[in-house]
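Input (structure):
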């Protein structure tokens, strides 16, 4: 039996998502890059590489990881590159996308001949959370002055519009693409490529994949552009779980099962976005428990669940949807045992690919 806690990535589930993306690519003609900020467990890159065209990044290190582990096209974006970032990133990137005019102006001479782009903030977005809304008030994400954008055309070949988050609403997507096509007509007709960013829920059950693919194909034909998408979540959705074990059971008006993991340290977004963890088959049972983490944080709670069987010390609790924005955010808070990384291969066998120990904890600070 494997030592808990561990993240378990399931290659068959990954493949299921990738097959959908393959259909989308075929119909739309778009290229699809993995957004490494969402998921960068490179033990899976052998499979991802077969279906995706490359990676996009939010920093120097992600761009480097894309170059050194994914071996395909590398888009390098960062909210603000430093001069030393730029010196190094030239080695890894196929395209560099700037977030502001001032970044473009600072580095364009140094990068003469390089394929450069600008992030554009279209002022529209789809996001349920203000925290993740690029079009929020006073947003620093992307440029919006159209005149300056047109003046920048001699220096750029492409643009990136990232304006969605978990968007599965075809009508909304379609009308926002139309709005962008209308508003940026002149710009788009003079570029070679455009990225429509991430956040389109391509792999969600029931998502109108073919319809959106056709929409994007039309957009790309109209402006004679290579379109890119940069999904994170959609690539890995539902493809991993966090496997934990009950260490203790306590009660305070309700039963509380404390597992050998922690929201804060191992599934941080549950706290950031105030959402309960997903635990399959735990809705209609008779045995109610809070599942809680073992950090000292009072609110370190995964959620309240109704299991079919009572939990005991040593019971396994599997928390699903643990790939996106989860493994990339794990940390050493409280010095808790960091979950190992395991992969369920296509042949069904589970392979342990990485364990973390005291030395990793110690060496993360000095
Ligand atoms: C976060 C982000 C993505 C990926 O978003 P998902 O919602 O995970 O698909 C893509 N591009 C940019 C610029 C991003 O900031």
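Output (sequence):
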């Amino acid at each position: 039996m494997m030592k808990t806690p561990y993240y378990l990535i399931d290659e068959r589930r990954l493949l299921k998502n990738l097959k959908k993306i393959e259909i989308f690519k075929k119909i739309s003609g778009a290229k699809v890059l993995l957004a490494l900020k969402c998921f960068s467990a490179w033990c899976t890159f052998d499979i991802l590489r077969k279906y995706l065209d490359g990676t996009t990044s939010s920093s120097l290190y992600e761009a480097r990881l894309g170059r050194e582990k994914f071996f395909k096209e590398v888009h390098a974006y960062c909210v603000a590159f430093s001069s030393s970032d730029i010196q190094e990133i030239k080695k890894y990137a196929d395209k560099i996308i700037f977030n502001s005019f001032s970044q473009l102006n600072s580095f364009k001479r140094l990068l003469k001949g390089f394929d450069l782009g600008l992030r554009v903030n279209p002022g529209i977005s789809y996001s349920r959370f203000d925290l993740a809304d690029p079009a929020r008030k006073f947003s620093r994400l992307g440029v919006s002055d159209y005149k300056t954008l047109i003046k920048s055309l001699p220096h750029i070949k492409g643009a990136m519009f990232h304006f969605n988050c978990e968007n599965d609403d075809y009508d909304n997507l379609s009308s926002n693409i139309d709005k962008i096509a209308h508003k940026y007509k002149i710009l788009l007709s003079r570029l070679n490529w455009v990225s429509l960013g991430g956040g389109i829920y391509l792999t969600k059950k029931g998502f109108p994949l073919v319809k959106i693919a056709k929409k994007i194909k039309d957009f790309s034909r109209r402006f004679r552009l290579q379109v890119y998408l940069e999904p994170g979540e959609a690539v890995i959705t539902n493809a991993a779980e966090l496997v934990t074990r009950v260490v203790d059971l306590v009660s305070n008006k309700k039963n509380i099962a404390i597992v050998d993991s922690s929201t804060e340290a191992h599934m941080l977004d549950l706290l950031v976005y105030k959402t309960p963890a997903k635990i399959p088959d735990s809705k209609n049972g008779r045995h109610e428990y809070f599942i809680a983490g073992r950090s000292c944080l009072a609110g370190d709670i995964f959620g309240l669940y109704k299991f079919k069987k009572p939990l005991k010390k040593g019971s396994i609790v599997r928390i699903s949807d643990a790939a996106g924005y989860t493994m990339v955010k794990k940390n050493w808070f409280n010095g808790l045992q960091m979950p190992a990384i395991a992969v369920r291969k296509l042949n069904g066998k589970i392979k342990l690919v990485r364990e973390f120990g005291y030395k990793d904890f110690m060496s993360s600070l000095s």
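Notes: The pocket of pyridoxal-5'-phosphate is lined by residues 35, 37-38, 77, 162, 165, 197-199, 230-234 (CB under 6 Å). The CA atoms of residues 288 and 306 lie 4 Å apart.
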